[in-house]
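In the previous lecture we treated proteins in isolation. Real proteins rarely work alone, and many bind small molecules. This record shows how such a complex is specified: first the sequence, then the SMILES for zinc ion.
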Amino acid sequence: MSIVTERPVKKPTRSHNLDVQSRQSLQVQSEDSHLDAAPLSQKIVMTIAVIGPFLGFALAIILAWQFGWMSWLYFSLMIGGWLISGLGITVGFHRMLTHRSFETYEWVRVAWAGLGSLAIEGPPLAWCAVHRKHHQHSDKEGDPHSPHLHGKGWRNAVRGFIHAHTGWLFSKTWSDKSLKKYVPDLMNSPGIAGISRNYVWWVIASFAIPAAIGGLVTMSWLGVFLGFLWGGLARVFFTHHATWSINSICHIFGSKDFEAGDDSRNNLVFGILGHGEGWHNNHHAFPTSARHGLKWWQVDLSWIIIKSMEKAGLVWDVRTPTTKAMEAKKVA
Ligand SMILES: [Zn+2]
Ligand SMILES: [Zn+2]
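The predicted 3D structure, ligand included, written as tokens:
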């Protein structure tokens, strides 16, 4: 599986050269197994990242139930944060950085990469490297988070699902030094490399911003706490599981409209909850398409945002598959 475009690039550009560079980097075969255990430090960080938001969400529900500590303010912080940081992942990390499905100004790239970093799914360089590796090996040995590599039978199917959803975070994928071979183009961008280097500050900001808004609006410490709980932990909980479901659910459940060479599926629920990323079979068939919901009814919020940016003159060279390309890969 290649991340490069399905349609010929008309003129050689800087980004074209980078595409070639990325393609060459994808030829590098990784030696690690998708099941190798991670170092202890990574396991600790991932345990906090997986359990923390869940506990925060559970506490938020209990406090709302017991004391009525919930209001439109905290609900808006959670939904608004989920939309902003989630789109940072889908438009920024995924369609813009990983697949280069459109071109834009450097400041726009940095802004989207910053919003994606607020989702606490890892620094942009690591996130994009892991995802390029996923496309290179999709559902085959070497795929960091395929649900299909654990053998036959329902027990192994369950193991595969857990691995694809969160288990892979505890494999050595994240700490694999060879990951940088997947993102030479992004490492050359001072803005993107800078955000990755200073990622910890984006993590802090991701929680400090909703806490500060909660405190300033209510002028209370309780507002700070509930802003942190709903706009921080609960919002990260939803964003994480929406993204992880693309790796797990959208490689198992849904329709297969195109021949993509893997088990990716189109799934309406995560088309909505994943800001358009649930049209995952479309995406694997046409990885560099900026549009994942290829039919008019396949709701794709990220595509609406990209199309709006194009109309505003903020992005250009927006890639979508031709009718001929779609016909060629259509499942009969
Ligand atoms: Zn996939
Ligand atoms: Zn992708």
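Summary for your notes: The chain is about 60% helix and 0% strand. The first strand starts at residue 103 and ends at 104.
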